[in-house]
Design goal:
Blueprint lengths: L1 H22 L14 E7 L3 E15 L2 E5 L4 E6 L8 E2 L4 E5 L2 H36 L5 H34 L1 E3 L4 E6 L6 E2 L4 E7 L2 E9 H5 L18 E8 L2 E17 L4 E9 L3 H5 L14 E18 L8 E5 L4 E6 L1 E5 L3 E6 L6 E3 L10 E8 L2
Parallel strand pairs: 1-21
Antiparallel strand pairs: 1-20, 2-11, 2-15, 3-10, 4-6, 4-9, 5-8, 6-7, 8-10, 11-14, 12-13, 12-15, 13-14, 15-19, 16-17, 16-20, 17-21, 18-19
Helix pairs in contact: 2-3
């Protein structure tokens, strides 16, 4: 009996204890974890005036070239030592002479013909005067007078033709000596000593030594950043022409040249939506290169590939920030006075390699996040660390 009662008592006790626990559950105090604000670098927004620049690249080419050809035919009698590829020639310098024997003979013949025509014309004029005097006294007939006038006119025409022939002979003799049309560098020479050249045959190709040009493409938005009057035709003059700094490597060293953007070409490339612009650079003289200031002022070589930095317009009331502050294409993170951080849409005026220029969406004095923080929740608390940018 006892063996039966004891287990039953234990079971009833367990049931009663379980019911007590159910009726009086233990309340667990839930404790929220403490949120630590993220430390971020911030900067105060300021409006300023910014000088824009536009970058492009291109190849140096001659500003002007001359394809010299022979104005007269004849054998080459003399060639200047400077008439070699890379040689420098001054304006008016004699480059080549043709054999003048035939030209001198032609001039002598034309001079003799001119003297004969002058004598015949003078005789015809004197004869006409004599016949006119006789005709006044009716000692010469009308037909004799007409014949004398006709002979005088014919001899005047022959005289004019002889004068033209003589001038042509002198001109041919003068043209047998070919001179440089401007200060230039010889690109190629195409004749040799003793070679017979025909009229209009190519002799040499020269390019100007005083100036060179660089043809660089600009996208249409880039063109809008330059301070060039819209609808400008022809060359830009004076202050209208933007300043340009060209940078290139030559002989293993970096060099800089100063130039001007002088014009834009008339057509826009429909494939790239770019327009070609022309930068002109004045080549240094020998005096420039010898001066202490011009120690690195070497002539800009034709064919050199250069980087162009063009001075653009100046924009006012613009906000310049590091490019890294832009998120989601057109947003920044603004930190308010309660150290809460929010996304803000802004209007971007221009994206540069290292900076972004913002024209609207921010006010002077506002604080923005400049840290490269990744996980951002709108309205999150932060611990700002002020920096100056």
């Amino acid at each position: 009996m006892i063996r039966v009662v004891i287990p039953i008592g234990i079971l009833v006790g367990c049931i009663l204890f379980a019911g007590y626990l159910i009726r009086t559950p233990t309340e667990l105090e839930e404790s929220s974890p403490e949120i630590i604000p993220v430390a971020v670098r911030v900067a105060e927004v300021q409006r300023e005036s910014v000088q824009l620049t536009v970058e492009s690249q291109g190849k140096v080419q001659a500003a002007r070239t001359a394809n010299l050809s022979a104005p007269v035919a004849g054998p080459v009698a003399w060639i200047s030592p400077a008439m070699e590829a890379g040689g420098f020639v001054e304006e008016g310098q004699t480059l080549l002479r043709l054999d003048t024997s035939d030209f001198e003979t032609a001039r002598l013949r034309s001079r003799a013909a001119l003297q004969q025509a002058q004598a015949e014309s003078q005789h015809a004029d004197s004869e006409l005067e004599r016949i006119e005097e006789l005709a006044k006294d009716r000692l010469a007939s009308e037909s004799q007078l007409q014949d004398a006038r006709r002979a005088a006119e014919v001899n005047r025409a022959r005289l004019a033709d002889a004068e033209a022939s003589f001038r042509q002979a002198e001109l041919d003799l003068e043209r047998s000596e070919i001179k440089a049309p401007f200060a230039a560098i010889v690109e190629t020479r195409e004749v040799e000593l003793g070679q017979y050249v025909n009229r209009a045959q190519s002799i040499a190709v020269l390019y100007g030594a005083d100036e060179v040009e660089v043809r660089v493409p600009l996208a249409m938005p880039q063109l809008g950043f330059l301070d060039i009057p819209l609808g400008t035709r022809g060359e830009l003059i004076g202050d209208e022409a933007p300043d340009v700094t060209l940078t290139g490597f030559y002989g293993g060293e970096e060099y800089h040249w100063q130039g001007k953007l002088v014009r834009t070409e008339a057509t826009i490339d429909p494939n790239s939506n770019t327009v070609q612009t022309i930068i002109r650079v004045r080549q240094p003289t020998s005096i420039d290169m010898l001066s202490p200031v011009g120690a690195h002022n070497i002539p800009l070589p034709i064919g050199l590939f250069v980087q162009a930095n063009i001075v653009g317009k100046r924009v006012n009331d613009i906000i310049a920030l590091p490019r890294s502050v832009i998120r989601n294409n057109n947003q920044v993170l603004v930190v308010d006075r309660e150290n809460k951080m929010y996304f803000r849409d802004v209007e971007i005026y221009r994206l540069e390699e290292e900076h972004v220029l913002i024209s609207a969406g921010l006010l002077p004095g506002e604080v923005i996040c400049i840290s490269p923080i990744q996980a951002v929740v709108d309205g999150m608390s932060v611990q700002p660390i002020q920096e100056i940018i």
